[in-house]
Amino acid sequence: MRFPKLFERLATLAPLPAEEWVKAEAVAKEQSLAKRELFMRPGDAADRFAVVLQGVFRGVRVSPRGGESIKAFRAEGELIGAYAEMLQRLPSMTAIEALEPSHVLVFQTQDFQQLEQGHVCWERLARRVAEQHFVLKERREQEFLELSAEERLVKFWEEHPHLKGRIPQRDVAAYLGITEVALSRIMSRRRKRAE
Amino acid sequence: MRFPKLFERLATLAPLPAEEWVKAEAVAKEQSLAKRELFMRPGDAADRFAVVLQGVFRGVRVSPRGGESIKAFRAEGELIGAYAEMLQRLPSMTAIEALEPSHVLVFQTQDFQQLEQGHVCWERLARRVAEQHFVLKERREQEFLELSAEERLVKFWEEHPHLKGRIPQRDVAAYLGITEVALSRIMSRRRKRAE
DNA sequence: CCTCCGCCTTAACCCAGGTCAAGCCCAGGT
DNA sequence: ACCTGGGCTTGACCTGGGTTAAGGCGGAGG
User: Fold this and answer.
1) Which terminus of chain B is more exposed, N or C, with fewer CB under 10 A?
2) Tell me, what CATH number does A52's domain have?
3) Cα-atom radius of gyration of chain A, to the nearest Å?
4) What gap in Å lies between CA A102 and CA A98, rounded to an integer?
5) Is residue A148 part of a domain?
6) Is residue B184 domain-resident?
7) What's the number of domains chain B is made of?
């Protein structure tokens, strides 16, 4: 087994026999990405995903009107990929970019479907993953519905302390749905209030 | 089989043997709700869900600061329940209220888990449901990130034409994340622009 | 060493949407 | 027919965040 820590992490989501994980490792490929390099670009087929072994990524959606907004950041142990597009069998509308020199473990969805044929554990795992992603998105929805930009900022750092210092401010702003300028103002306002 | 149309609908999501559906019908209970009656209230255990047979519901979250925001509307053929809370085994933080005299088919999650033990089809169906809910939430997230309230309004009616006339304006506003006043202004602005 | 560039801040101005308050319309109840 | 109350609109005023544009600052390359 090449990635025992990853195996343990997945096994907490759903019962996962070690043999099955070994099969999965066999079809996965490691990939290294330089800072700023894209794991996926808009227009690509959404036919693969990866687990982050090392590094941080941002999922960027470039809107028709030019602006970029950020759907999520992903660090060690988390999944990257155009998940919604994969589920809908659409080409990716998302760019996934390394914010640091990174290292990931890539799966083709096709290979993953093979694994599903072989053992029910994968079906269950996929379910858990979908459910967890749902919970995260619903939490975010809630934040947009009832919190101000400032409150969202505070929550962001509470929930993602491990990203401190690893992502540029402008990306935090794009994640919160505001501009870099507004974020800067909010921070200076808080600084003043704090003294 | 008591609900053949529902069976057909579910069968489009994942292969579902008719016998399994009959078993499910056996553990489900029909329930009628008056207008304004709650299917679930905040604090309730999130241990059941239902399919809407007739009527419309709104999922309301009452925030600590008193305001209510609306997570979703659900009409015929759709699921109601405190899904995120159920997945996290938390008590419901959501009120689910009938906006019309309604009729639903209720399942206890416990009974559903029994069904899952009996046949893999339910696992697969649960996965599809989770995935579809995820896609919907992500779409909504996108709308908050890149659209104005007015654009969100237009999209809302494009995506939910069947709700026309069945839900009060203030609820549409609470769904869009704005006040009833702002919604009214937006609508009058569009009316003027249209002549 | 200086310059350039990427990232952040600050300031001036504008506008969407929030808040508060008054008023309208209409359906239901007496 | 009259009240009443719920749901919607409108107006006046305020505020958070957008836009534009001008610096500031620190690190990489000449």
Assistant:
1) C
2) 2.60.120.10
3) 18
4) 6
5) no
6) no
7) 1
